[in-house]
Amino acid sequence: MAEVEAIKELDSIKLISHLLEIRCSKQMSDIWNIGLNLALRISDLLSIKFSDIQEDRLVIKESKTGKQANIKLNSKVIKHIRRIQQEHPMHIYLFQSYRNQQAINALPKPLSRRSVTKAFALVGEELNLNLGTHSMRKTRGYHLYKQTKDIGRVMKMLRHGSEGVTLRYIGITQDNIDKDFVELEI
Question: CATH top-level class for 10-183?
């Protein structure tokens, strides 16, 4: 399995959202759009409950690291969340599985990681991209780095422990660093 990549072109980011909606579902498009803005691992993204959201903040404990993520929500995410909540006022999870409603007396569950992986792979194949669930997190990190050139800031956002891990994670290669040295003349 190839390593998934950050999506570096803004037009491709929008196209992925569009294709997820028309090929899969509005819910998959919402996962992509919200996931891009929250930079959470897919397990944490799918486990978000509406009760984790307080006005313009999301506070959750990350399952992999045990660290607390306290994220201020931007207007795009708030708009998506409000629409989802309005369309599904009885849901507990932001990305709740619809299939579970057919099981009598079954507790609500979030959408499965597997279903999101399949949807993203389908669209990635169509666009000839290594698209996966980590692509949202990597894309957010990549674009923050390109905008600020502040690897420490990206590390903090992704809650990573080293610059090398973060640079590799967001797809900044030695070629990119060499290019920055050549292009920036002082």
Answer: mainly alpha
